Model the fold of this input.
Amino acid sequence: DSGVTQTPKHLITATGQRVTLRCSPRSGDLSVYWYQQSLDQGLQFLIQYYNGEERAKGNILERFSAQQFPDLHSELNLSSLELGDSALYFCASSVGVGTPSTDTQYFGPGTRLTVL
Amino acid sequence: DQQVKQNSPSLSVQEGRISILNCDYTNSMFDYFLWYKKYPAEGPTFLISISSIKDKNEDGRFTVFLNKSAKHLSLHIVPSQPGDSAVYFCAASGSSGGSYIPTFGRGTSLIVHP
Done:
């Protein structure tokens, strides 16, 4: 158990809908990262928040948005869903901003989104 | 364009033998490299890392080798155990605006047969 929790585990919805994925980081971790893993793809970085502020942005679609709340949990909002958005969405957390030699990312179990 | 490539989608090895997982990268700005292991229905777990100032890092049965001139790294598992059966992701990072976000490969599925 990494200490990172994600809800829900599975989500099935229809095209055009909007969903919210939730992530609670490990106790004490200030950074939250969101990744998308489509079929046979590596993990694609979407966005990072550090202590409530956006820190880094990857290939996140304009239909997607995220935020980190004062209690440090984070939500990823996906709207106007398309079939191609079906994927595993992982959240990870780390203590600091992500300095690789000292700042390991701990991943949650993921949310599997299916868009029909 | 994939900046981190794991060209072998799968690898099958006998228990007790060596497993060698390979990874190539294209971005010369990458200076830190990581391996993650992932079991089904779980998130990736950090396994081992190496800085570009080193060419080898060892942690128990796991050793990562880095060849900067070839832009190639490999993960050696000796001896391989059935519990090592998982998907292994190679990742590389370099400072971008003060933030090190890893770029992941597509993974190699390792099966260790008893």
Notes: Chain B touches chain A through 27 residues (CB under 8 Å). Chain B is about 0% helix and 55% strand.
